[in-house]
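Repro case for the chain-ordering regression, as requested:
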Amino acid sequence: MKISKVEAIPFAIPYRKPLRFASGEVTAAEHVLVRVHTDSGLVGIAEAPPRPFTYGETQASIRAVVDGIFAPQIIGLSPLEREVMHTRLNRTVGNPTAKSALDMAVWDLIGQSLGVSVTDLIGGYTDRMRVSHMVGFAPPGEMVAEAERIRGLYGITTFKVKVGRRPIELDIEVCKALRAGLGDGVELYIDGNRGWTPSESARALRAMEDLDLTFAEELCPADDVLGRRWLVSQSRIPIFADESVSRPGEVTRELLAGAANGVSIKTARTGFTYSQRVLHLCEGLGVEVVMGNQIDGQIGSLCSAAFGAAFELTSRRPAELSNFLDMSDDLLSEPLQITGGTLHVREGAGLAIEIDEDKLAHYRQDG
Amino acid sequence: MKISKVEAIPFAIPYRKPLRFASGEVTAAEHVLVRVHTDSGLVGIAEAPPRPFTYGETQASIRAVVDGIFAPQIIGLSPLEREVMHTRLNRTVGNPTAKSALDMAVWDLIGQSLGVSVTDLIGGYTDRMRVSHMVGFAPPGEMVAEAERIRGLYGITTFKVKVGRRPIELDIEVCKALRAGLGDGVELYIDGNRGWTPSESARALRAMEDLDLTFAEELCPADDVLGRRWLVSQSRIPIFADESVSRPGEVTRELLAGAANGVSIKTARTGFTYSQRVLHLCEGLGVEVVMGNQIDGQIGSLCSAAFGAAFELTSRRPAELSNFLDMSDDLLSEPLQITGGTLHVREGAGLAIEIDEDKLAHYRQDG
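-- result from build under test --
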């Protein structure tokens, strides 16, 4: 079985309401559907989410690099020749979500051709992931109400709170309201998306010391090199790195520099192949991980869950898998369901992704 | 498909002549054949080489821990549930070759059941490995003659020279004779098996400075903690760790302590699952690796080659795959062949190991 054709299809699905973060705002999921075709008729599927504020990629750049550079490099390869594929893809710098979508689509092909789920292929630990939900910026009362709604609807009891605004009191107030409103039975952690300075981060953490936060993610930029090391050196809760650790070499640098205590793994940027490498690197270094969310659609969320469920270390804590709830629709024939705070990995070969072709025709932007 | 039975069969095959190292001597390969049976009739195969001087395991301890502890823990699991299996095996400390043989036999089952080679399953980089040959202790002239014989017979042009004797001049003389006798077209590196002190190691390296050694392995014990760091800090050729890095946590400790610059990966002690972790850890840390040999028989050599060929990083340099040449016989129906300095991975599903049952009946020690 050889790879015969690669499609990179831009599509846009509106969010129910605009998503706001310290690093920017998005109003629609403008992603790229990647389909890797083979001469046997099997088709591997994944999606690439362009994140210009994080990785510099755009919908147009993903299409261009897939069509113009990557597709010719991998057409003719067997899906099993992953190491050969990555040797070729890696000649091109950056473009993490484009490369990762190809990687995951190829793993989907491997699973389909062998009749085994990707989760079982790469580790086979469990068939589900507990879910952590991200609460976006809003007045404190609204954020508590939203978290309560999510808990009631989906049984989710772990919440990631977006912080990083100025003055820091805005976010401190929100976190206090969430702990008071949701009670002690709920797990809370925060994500600053590089919005604060190191000293603001430290002040905010001190002010939230009684809130029993599990960890804090990317409060200040990794390029605040010494400031961030100082922050990590004196923080009483672990600091996780996210957008600053988008490949193994960066993981090593940040961890060995003392600039982080934990790592967020996102299949959207490291696929399945390099997510394994990041995971094994962290495991070998004795560092905790969390499965993060690149504001993934349902296809991306399925990929992330498929990876997380494969390993014991990634299954230890709830994964960020619910961002798709903010989208008004999606491309899957059978939408994802979160119940009892849990997302099940799809049974079936590969990633078991089935696209609703009518929806794709409706949302695709190249027609 | 579920695991239904596990066999741990002791066998002994004489060496053509006794193998001598700084850390001990062996006269026969007294290994344990591990066969993992399933309710589908498929059988996964690997071998465990007891190395009491290195890991504390014996043939009897491997049989006891497999039969008494590990078999009951994995019977009933699907071979795909590797992460569940390792969570259980890891409750028992140590016993690396016993655990690894089970891991590799289970990967053999996965490959067989899916109709894919293990090499393709885990990476799919290439189908062969260049071979490095180990030259054991002997007078200089004999060692040169032996290397020439191996080069002539098998086309091997990379040699690992056992050192670590006292006085160090014995080994310096050998290495000089090998370089002079074999010429510049041959790659040479040395392995001390912890035989020297740090200062002896440094003196020997200085005396061999003109011999263009690629690297030096485990010249002094890892527990010579500060001495070894000093040695590594001032050595002009890289120092590789071998028996001091038998699991990911040890790799991290030795590398971060500055006690090694490279790592030997041996499937005999880390199987396929943990060898991937060690590899990805080293890759993420930017550290070179070599596929090492645990004085493996043909089954173990096949496993090592299957892993090495799967990845670009492990394929960069010749792997130590020729120790089986010292054995007077083996259990495979079709013996391994090294030609043109290369060992090909077996085509076929899983590890494609077929045991000659007559030979097993002859060499097994529990009959």
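Ordering looks correct now. Chain B has a mean pLDDT of 95.
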